[in-house]
Amino acid sequence: xxxxxxxxxxxxxxxNFVHYMLKKEPxxxxxxxxxxxxxxxxxxxxxxxxPERHLFLEGDICDQPLVEGILRDDRVDTIVHxxxxxxxxxxxxxxxxxxxTNIQGTFSLLEAARKVWLDEASLPRxxxxxxxxxxxxxxxxxxxxxxxxxxQTPYDPNxxxxxxxxxxxxxxxxxxxTYGLPTLITNCSNNYGPxxxxxxxxxxxxxxxxxxxxxxxxxxxxxxRDWLYVEDHCxxxxxxxxxxxxxETYNIGGNNQPTNLEIVEAICAILDEYIPDSSHVPHKQLIxxxxxxxxxxxxxxxxIQKIQTELNWKPAEELSSGLRKTxxxxxxxxxxxxxxxxxxxxxxxxDVNYTNRSDNS
Length: 361
Ligand code: NAD
Ligand code: DAU
Fold this sequence. Notes:
Blueprint: E1 3-7, H1 12-24, E2 29-34, E3 54-58, H2 64-73, E4 78-81, H3 88-93, H4 96-119, E5 129-135, H5 160-179, E6 183-188, E7 190-192, H6 201-211, E8 215-218, E9 227-229, H7 230-243, E10 249-252, H8 260-274, E11 287-290, H9 305-311, H10 319-332, H11 334-341, H12 344-354
Parallel strand pairs: 1-2, 1-4, 2-3, 4-5, 5-6, 6-10, 7-9, 8-11
The structure holds nicotinamide-adenine-dinucleotide and 2'deoxy-thymidine-5'-diphospho-alpha-D-glucose (DAU).
2'deoxy-thymidine-5'-diphospho-alpha-D-glucose binds next to helix 6 and strand 8.
């Protein structure tokens, strides 16, 4: 791993991974290709450790000649592919962008890798890796008493987002099987932590609570997610990159099962403690049950035995401490928050998703 192409490295997990990798891999140089959609920000890449080993390139993963040029000219040996449209609610409003970036974009990256790495043999096959970052949502929804998803669970995606990620996973598998492209796939549960765009549950609740606005809980709030602190995800990815078996898939998760309502209440309690003089204490009073997400998956849970036993990885952060760190980060990073919430695009999304939603029928 000398020359690494990270796609989507200005987004939430990708930027955390850039910080993490520069810290942990002193020999690695990073090319960060990101289209800077609404979800990407250069502010996520400020104060990088050892910034001269990081080069930001604004561009689209669907631009195959551009990607081929980077792979060839910079002798890239590792691709870590985060770039995606990632928000389920937006995929319900407008699925087209998800098909383009998540399916077409992954296809285009795979084709570039096939051409430069395999056809042109720019580097020995054993020296290259294509690591595809995916999600637990490809497995569908679990009943309350069903066992957690394993790597053998059949795909059963429900939202346009999940379906587009499932399609991209299948393409990656097919390139490994058909062309012998050295691939790795990781499927991870819900991440949270610094730099998460405030359209996802945890940051949106923190920011709305600070303003004394209603905290929108979809449906009955009894949906269950498996939450992973983002730095743990970064550690898991690096572990798989270094020691994972080529062609394999690894599930990653946080080993917890709170309901959405429990998460929202936990955030409210942390805010009560951190800002006791706020006029919104107790923040819990702001919770509002709103109309459910169409096709809302009820429960996700990840069985992480494979990565744990094979690669000796498990999450380090407890949910309670991770949530405290996350709330602190949003309180301490007002300029970052301001730069996003003042964007017209962001305000438009808030209107589209939340106006008239309080009619919970
Ligand atoms: P994000 O939405 O915060 O960031 C996505 C990044 O990709 C942005 O910087 C955006 O500008 C960039 N991008 C979008 N389209 C692009 C294109 N066509 N070309 C180049 N760049 C483009 O997403 P995230 O939450 O950081 O998720 C990263 C990856 O991890 C995604 O593949 C997602 O499916 C997966 N994942 C996310 C979670 C989670 O909880 N957030 C959990 C499991 C897996
Ligand atoms: O499971 C992994 C997935 O987690 C990733 O693949 C996705 O990229 C990521 O966005 C995330 O998807 P979710 O739909 O689970 O995340 P979100 O934060 O949007 O929602 C978490 C839960 O909270 C979900 O059950 C819906 C609910 N929710 C969400 C929002 C935005 C609310 O109740 N109110 C809200 O306002």
